[in-house]
Amino acid sequence: MAVAPVTYGASTRPPRGDYSAARADYTCEQGWESYTPEQHALYARLVRRQMALIPGRACDEFLHALPRLGDGRAIPRFDEVSDRLRRATGWEIVAVPGLIPEDAFFALLAARRFPVTVWLRRPEEFDYIVEPDVFHDLFGHVPLLFNPVFADYMQAFGAGGLKAEGLHALQFLARLYWYTVEFGLIATPGGLRVYGAGILSSVGETAYALESLKPQRLGFSLERVLRTPYKIDDYQDSYFVIDSFAQLFDATAPDFAPVYERVAELPPLGVNERLPGERSYPPNAAQATPG
Ligand code: PHE
Ligand code: FE
User: Fold this and answer.
1) Is 273 part of the annotated catalytic residue set?
2) Could you tell me the pTM of the whole model?
3) Is 182 a residue of the active site?
4) Ligand 1 lined by 156 (C-beta under 6 Å)
5) CA distance 12 to 181
6) What is d(CA 225, CA 239) in angstroms, rounded to the nearest whole number?
7) Residue 12 to residues 6, 16, 102, 149, 283: CA-CA distances in angstroms?
8) Catalytic annotation on 201?
């Protein structure tokens, strides 16, 4: 059954990816044999560059799980990653042609299936790409699915997404996804570390998120996050810092229905706005960045 293509946000660019071969749940075959040697080499270059940046910047849970994606010298085979993931946390990854509708996305997460885009960016997009590709989806998102607490958070998020759709609260829940799964920071005894996939797959934002004086870094609070709009095309103005994945899981476990109602009555928070008594973290000292 053919499914409709999906574009990002309000974008008018044509969708990337071939939706004609996708199933009704938007999953498709990875087609690993169709990647060219140049694409494997480009993927390997992306991995090498991020690997040079993330020691002392990515959280330990991410760094420890990264080797389970393979040696980084080629685009991994999804079925091999899924075998390891199933044994670790009961998750698997599934191939998708590109962005998929929110309900399909949440339904997959609720079933512990993480959708990974099959296509890789073009060489001229090496430094920056707006839409998620196989490098962002795999390298950025999949390592933390090996962590049991984070894995449970992602499943709960899927179920919570299906519920938020019925409550017309998706714009609020999307902020929680953005400021945790994509752009989350975590406090450790050694300083701040990154766990968000949008940061960890970005060459510029990895150091910026931790070390720049420009953005604010605020202690995680559910209501605060749900009230904070985000940018999809530039580095963030605000990051939110959790103490542990257990804290994140516990803070998001209660019923959101009354929280959505409260937040809908409150104004969104502006760029760099601080609420009274809000905890803010200083940046880490700048590390030398490999040239
Ligand atoms: N507790 C949320 C609800 O009732 C569901 C949820 C859990 C959402 C974890 C996001 C993350 O809607
Ligand atoms: Fe992502």
Assistant:
1) no
2) 0.95
3) yes
4) yes
5) 26
6) 9
7) 11, 12, 18, 38, 37
8) yes
Residue 217, strand partner residues: 239
> Does ligand 1 lie within 6 Å of residue 157's CB atom?
yes
Residues near ion ligand 2 (CB < 5 Å) are: 132, 197
**Spatial strand order in the sheet of 185-188:** 191-194, 185-188, 238-242, 216-219
**Is 131 part of the annotated catalytic residue set?**
no
What DSSP string runs through 194-224?
A: E--HHHHT-TTHHHHHHH-SSSEEEE--HHH
> Which ligand 1 atom lies nearest to the CA of residue 153?
9
Classify 70 in phi/psi space as left (phi over 0), alpha (psi -120 to 50) or beta: left
Q: From 202, 198, 242, 196, select the one nearest 219 (Cα to Cα).
A: 242
- With beta carbons less than 8 A apart as the criterion, state whether 287 and 207 touch: yes
156 Cα to the center of ligand 2, angstroms? 17
Task: State the distance from the centre of ligand 2 to the C-alpha of 197, rounded, in angstroms.
Answer: 6
Q: Give the Å distances, CA to CA, from 56 to 52, 62, 67, 217.
A: 10, 11, 16, 18
Atom of ligand 1 nearest to the CA of 176: 10
Mean pLDDT, consecutive 10-residue stretches, the chain (291 aa), reads: 57 77 96 98 97 96 97 98 98 96 96 98 90 96 98 98 96 96 97 97 94 96 96 91 98 98 94 87 86 52
Q: Are 239 and 215 in contact (CB under 8 A)?
A: yes
- Strands of 79-236 (E only): list them: 92-96, 113-117, 185-188, 191-194, 216-219
Separation of CA 115 and ligand 2 centre (Å) = 10
Does an H or E element contain 150, and which?
A: helix 148-166
Q: What's residue 6's pLDDT?
A: 66
Q: What does the pLDDT read at residue 140? A: 98
| CA 277–ligand 2 middle distance (angstroms) | 31
